[in-house]
Every structure is written in C-alpha cells, then in structure tokens.
C-alpha cells in the first residue's frame, strides 16, 4: 500500500460545499412536500413572524421552521405539547449542517385538536363580547309561536314536541328543518337562523339536537352559527347534546338548556301551575274589588252627608232668582238695542231716498239739451267761417295759378320729353312740340 497522497483522485469539499450538496440531494429526492404528524416542542415566535419548533415522537425528533407567510394562514396558535399534522419540505440548514423541515401547512390532529380549536374560538368570541350578559334577552312569558331549528327526524324534536304539548298546548310550534351534523350543517343552521329572525313570525327560537361526540356536535361550535345567534332579532335558546355537553352556541344564546326536554320546559309554563297561578290572581282580584267597593261606598256616604249639610236646595233657589234677573236685563238690553238700530236704519233710508238718482235726472237732461243746442250753433258758425276762408283762399290761389295766365292769352310749350321750352334754340329743326293754351292744346313742328 502506497503512502503517497494522490491529490487528483478524490474531490475535496469544504463544509459549506458539502452541506450544499447534501441539501440538493435531499431536495431532489423529495421535491414535493411530505405529510408528517407529531408533537410540538420548543416553539419560538421571534419578531420576524417566523415560527421555529421541534416535531417529535417517542423515539426521534426533527427541527422545523414555518416562515411568516405560511404562519399568517394558521387558524390556531401552536404551543408546546400540541399534536399536529403538518405538510413540509425536507431540507438542510447549510449554516449549521442541520437536517430540518420547512412547513407550509399545519393543523391540529385528532380529538385534542378539536378541543383546542373549540377553546381558541371560545376565547376569541368571548373577547369580542358575544357571550356578554348585557346582550342576553329574557324569554317571553307566553310565546305564541316557537321556531325549533333542528333535524326533523332526530329524537330531540320528538322530545321537544312531547314536552310542549304536555305542558301547555297554546303555543304554535314550527319545526324548521336543518342538518345538524356534517360539513353542510353550519351554513344551513346559520341561514335558517337568519331567515327565521328576519321573518318576524316567531317569539322565540330553539336551536337543538341530541347528544353525541365532540365531532358530532361540531356544527354548533362553528363561528358562522355563533354570529347568526348573536345577530338574531328574537331570543334564542340553545339545547345541544346532554347536560355535560357545552358548545359555542350555548355560550352565545340568550339561554342554555341542559337537554332538549329541559329547553321545552323553559319555553312554556306548565298548564297546571299556570291554572293555580290564575286562581291565586283571581282571588286577589276579588279581594281587591271588594275592598275597593267598600271604600267607594264609604266615600259616597261621606259625600252625601256633606251635601245635606250644605243645603243645596237653597243655593239652587238663589241661583234661579239671579238667573231670572239676568234674563230680564238681557231682554231689556236687547229691546233697547233693537230700537236704536231701527231708528238709525230709518234715518239712513231717508238720506238714501233724498239722494236717489231719479231726482237728479231731470236737471241733467235739461242741461244736456241746452248744451246740445249750444254745440249745434257753434258748429254752424264754425262751418260758415271755414267756408268763407276756403273761398277766399281759392280766389287767391286761382289768381297766381298758371291756368289764369293761360286764360289771358299766354301759352306753355313742351318738348317731346314734356319739358318746358323757354328758348327757341332749345327746339331743333323738325322737332315736334306741344303748345298748351288757355283752352286746348296744339301739336306743332319747327320748319326752319
């Protein structure tokens, strides 16, 4: 065997290079996430929002990390000792050469997971005030219509109807059918609560089902159902499971009953107890009426005695005399007032007759006739003056008229364009002219 070191034979790695190679080998061998179940320990949540923890079982453990984006999607808070089911990618933390899992999903595992989810939801809704006593309303003493939200084929609805019918058959009961177990149960129960509340038909609502495991009752631990109960406009009674069972619906409801039968007893009073209570009330009312009648009779006797002591007949007689005196005074005053009004009316009628229009018509007619004659004479004089003035102006106008000049032997010569000829040179040889005389016209032609 040679002691000579062959530098070319093996590949020499650094720690980081070796860790990187191992990481690549692991990621290539398991390229997708694996599902793994175990118990949490050493859970750490630094300010970065990442979660670091160890997942272990009875004989082994592995370091794990869940980064902030995946951690923000968790519906619960991981704590030490919690049993979880996780999906993770296998890898190696190169800086330390440690094998680790990087989780992208985590959920509680088994019955313990349901219980922890129940406790976490209970704590969160309690912090929001959904369980506050100030919000809880009293049940109606005598409900007229009860809505029972449950499975129509379960034992719970039979127990409820039997007890209600036995105690007091006055209330109308309507069964509002919903599934009470399985994935479709929570949205169906919440929707029925909303419809029943909005309908205004019911005085109280009962949400109920028979007993079962925590998983069987899980529909009544749903946040959607809890908020529908809290938002109901009418009181809600919750009776889910047996006396030892508690659900989120029990804490939110206005009243929690241990069993469906107990809920029915709380909803309506017992008929016999109610009859006995009515009888006691009847006796008390009879006693009170008797006492009231006796007191009224004593008061009437007292008032009668006071009335006799004050002798009302004498007061009535005095008042009657005073009324008669007032009546006579009123009659006298009315008579005098009527006489004064009639005298004034007569004076006004006389003044009106003196001012009657017929009395003024004759002088007006005479005046109109006189004015008409004066106007006619004035018009005649005006017309004569105007006629004489027109004649005088006509004579003056005729004296200066060209026609009067023509009558004295003058003539007016017009050329062919009807222009007045003032000089002989204005008329060419052979041109025709028109001569206007005092009487008639001549048509002439210049020869030379």
From TrEMBL:
Residue ranges occupied by any OB-fold nucleic acid binding domain in the UniProt entry: 16-107
Enzyme Commission identifier(s): 3.1.11.6
Subcellular location(s) of the protein: Cytoplasm
Signal peptide: none
Keyword Nuclease: yes
Domain annotation Exonuclease VII large subunit C-terminal: ranges: 130-444
Pfam families: Exonuc_VII_L (PF02601), tRNA_anti_2 (PF13742)
A Gene Ontology molecular function term of the record: nucleic acid binding
GO annotation (BP), single: DNA catabolic process
InterPro entries linked: Exonuc_VII_L (IPR003753), Exonuc_VII_lsu_C (IPR020579), OB-fold_nuc-bd_dom (IPR025824)
Principal subcellular localization: cytoplasm
Enzyme class: hydrolase
Keywords of the record: Cytoplasm, Exonuclease, Hydrolase, Nuclease
Cellular component GO terms held in the UniProt record: cytoplasm; exodeoxyribonuclease VII complex
Catalyses which reaction(s): Exonucleolytic cleavage in either 5'- to 3'- or 3'- to 5'-direction to yield nucleoside 5'-phosphates
Protein family per UniProt: Belongs to the XseA family.
Function of the protein: Bidirectionally degrades single-stranded DNA into large acid-insoluble oligonucleotides, which are then degraded further into small acid-soluble oligonucleotides.
Known partners and oligomeric status: Heterooligomer composed of large and small subunits.
Protein name, entry field: Exodeoxyribonuclease 7 large subunit
Organism: Luteibacter pinisoli
């Amino acid at each position: 065997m040679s002691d000579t070191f062959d530098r070319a034979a093996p590949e020499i790695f650094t720690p980081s290079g070796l860790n990187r190679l191992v990481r690549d080998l692991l990621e290539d061998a398991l390229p997708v996430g694996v599902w793994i179940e175990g118990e949490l320990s050493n859970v750490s949540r630094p300010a970065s929002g990442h979660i670091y923890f160890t997942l272990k079982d009875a004989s082994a453990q592995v370091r794990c990390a869940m980064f902030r984006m995946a951690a923000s999607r968790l519906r619960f808070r991981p704590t030490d000792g919690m049993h979880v089911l996780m999906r993770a990618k296998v890898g190696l933390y190169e800086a330390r050469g440690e094998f680790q899992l990087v989780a992208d999903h985590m959920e509680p595992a088994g019955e313990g997971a349901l219980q922890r989810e129940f406790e976490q939801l209970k704590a969160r809704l309690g912090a929001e005030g959904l369980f506050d006593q100030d919000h809880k309303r009293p049940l109606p003493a005598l409900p007229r219509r009860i809505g029972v939200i449950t499975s129509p084929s379960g034992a719970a609805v039979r127990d409820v109807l039997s007890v209600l019918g036995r105690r007091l058959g006055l209330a109308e009961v309507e069964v509002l059918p919903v599934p009470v177990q399985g994935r479709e149960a929570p949205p169906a129960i919440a929707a029925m609560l909303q419809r029943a509340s909005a309908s205004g038909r019911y005085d109280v609502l009962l949400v109920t089902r028979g007993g079962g495991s925590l998983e069987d009752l899980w529909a009544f631990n749903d946040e959607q159902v809890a908020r529908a109960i809290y938002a109901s406009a009418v009181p809600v009674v919750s009776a889910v499971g047996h006396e030892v069972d508690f659900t989120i619906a029990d804490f939110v409801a206005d009243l929690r009953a241990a069993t469906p039968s107990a809920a029915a007893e709380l909803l309506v009073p017992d008929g016999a107890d109610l009859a006995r209570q009515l009888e006691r009330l009847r006796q008390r009312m009879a006693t009170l009426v008797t006492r009231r009648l006796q007191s009224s009779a004593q008061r009437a006797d007292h008032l009668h005695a006071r009335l006799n002591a004050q002798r009302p007949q004498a007061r009535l007689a005095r008042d009657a005399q005073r009324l008669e005196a007032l009546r006579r005074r009123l009659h006298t005053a009315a008579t005098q007032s009527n006489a004064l009004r009639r005298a004034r009316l007569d004076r006004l009628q006389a003044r009106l007759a003196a001012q009657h229009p017929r009395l003024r018509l004759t002088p007006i007619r005479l005046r109109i006739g006189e004015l008409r004659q004066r106007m006619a004479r004035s018009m005649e004089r005006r017309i004569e003056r105007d006629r004489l003035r027109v004649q005088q102006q006509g004579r003056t106008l005729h004296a200066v008229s060209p026609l009067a000049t023509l009558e004295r032997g003058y003539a007016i010569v017009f050329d062919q364009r009807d222009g007045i000829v003032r000089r002989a040179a204005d008329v060419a040889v052979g041109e025709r002219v028109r001569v206007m005389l005092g009487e008639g016209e001549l048509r002439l032609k210049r020869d030379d």
